[in-house]
Amino acid sequence: MGRHRGKYAEEPSGRSRRRRGRGGAFAALAAAMVIVVGLAVAGVYMFGQGDGCSGSDIELDIAVSPELGPALTDVASDFNAEEHTVDNSCVRANVRQADSANVAFGITGSGATMGDTDSDVWIPDSSVWPRLVQSQAGDAVITETGTSLARSPLVLAELVEFADDSEDETTWMDVVPTAAPGEETDRVVRVIDPARSSSGLGTLYLLNGALEESSPDADTFNAHMTAALQALHQGASADEDAAFLALSGGSEAAPPVMVMSEQALWRYNSAHADAPAQPSYLSDGTYFLDYPYIVRSEDSAITRAAEVFRTAVRSDEAAARFLDEGFRGPEGELNSSVLAEDAGFRTEEPSELPAPSENSITELTRFWNQLKMDSRVLTIVDISGSMLAEVPGTGLTRMQVAGAASAEGLQMFSDTSELGLWEFSTNVNNNLHYQEIAPIRELQATDDAGNEHRDVIGAALQGLEPLPQGDTALYETYLAAYQEMSRTYRPDRTNVVLMLTDGDNDNPGGMELDELMEQINSLSSPSRPIPIITIAFGPDVQNLEPLQEIAAATGGAAYMTEDPTEIGEIFLQAFSLRIAEDEES
Description:
By secondary structure, this protein is an alpha/beta fold. The protein folds into 3 domains: 58-151 and 291-324, D-Maltodextrin-Binding Protein, domain 2 (3-Layer(aba) Sandwich); 155-289 and 356-366, D-Maltodextrin-Binding Protein, domain 2; 373-584, von Willebrand factor, type A domain (Rossmann fold, 3-Layer(aba) Sandwich). Helix content is 42%, strand content 18%. The protein contains 20 helices and 19 strands. The chain has a 6-stranded mixed β-sheet. A 6-stranded mixed β-sheet has the order 16-15-12-17-18-19, sandwiched between helices. Helix 4 (100-108) runs parallel beside helix 5, helix 16 runs parallel beside helix 17 (513-523) and helix 17 (513-523) packs parallel to helix 18. Residues 1-53 and 578-585 have low confidence and may be disordered.
């Protein structure tokens, strides 16, 4: 007992000091040996590696959206210098820039890709891309980690010299294009192709939401959505470089209002200091690019290496690098000397709207691509005697009003769309009830006299003359047009027959509806759709049912109005048909 106590008992000071000194020396020696052994082991490992991390290194392939690439490359360089390990193997982070859409389409096979889409870690500009992959390629390895490296809201970018200095709040409905192409508008809004850009796709999503809230019914929404998509199509930029060129005024068109990310606008200004742009923030919220950290491997060593690098990119040092490049942090942080208030940037983060769902992404992309497909339209105009009747309140005949409305509708089509024009009544061409006025050609094509086909069609529409004694041989004309479009069908285009008439079928002794339907059914094929769209106008149209039956058999539509001046609005409804069909399917 005393011996045990004596171990801890107080002893004379001198002896005690000597014992402590000897113990301290032994402890120091032991610590030194540990350090020496540790250095020796480390030295053996280091020398065994030759030039550092090589040989059995774990190579972590990281594909990142190009705008985040420079900052992430710096982070990876520091990371590699620190020689992080997994299972005694050094992890080397290799960063390469990769277009987000290119990677997504490479995985799903649903779009054009330039290859080189494999990687261990994927950092796209937006979560919409991995969601698209998950919805279209369910077996793809896509592991969301919940980490967002940076964020950037969509804003409106406009050159400072053209920007509106008013302090009025701007909403999405103030800027989305609702006028039909060719109609005058205060602002030309442009986007980057939504099929390949998350900022463009985000714009469609916000546009879609704004129009849904403001539209009283589905038909109005479809018509306005179609007009907006067509207007955006005409000025869509293929990529960011093209968008920057358009914004600078480096193209023939006047500088537009461009929807892009806040960080993209900062980069634009960095390269155009002599003529900068300024952002406008939408008062009803916006969509954010969020740069998610996605792991695409199931290999144990790779996934652990990816987790080690994920820790590095979440460090304060990495975050500061991202802020230096014009991004905001995951919690809204920003570098106020980069996103400076005197350049129009706001310190306060704009309110965030929910991101589009997988279904919304798929539907919006389909809408865009379908309207992007060039049309091939055979337009047929009634020139029967009733077209000489005056439209009340206009001082114009039905023919004149219909011609003017059709000429306006012509502006809805792209230069590469194909259009042809027929007129019809009874016996307009020897024994035929229809006659070709202009062949089906691209609107940008020129004839032997150098006239552009768009101008030829426009002049022909304005010059149509009714036959005073002519009747309305609708059914024979429908069949002839359907046969012509079947014979010349183009699978790469939307093939449509468009009929404008002011009366019911009126041709005694001519074809009956049952015969027409039998003929159309024998010609039609689900793989070669040719919708017949009829716009019937004026008080002489007494029975819309036959036209609706023809439309139903061909996947088309039939519209009726007593006022020919409404034809322009009906054009929009008619060409929103593809959107309505997708919503129903």
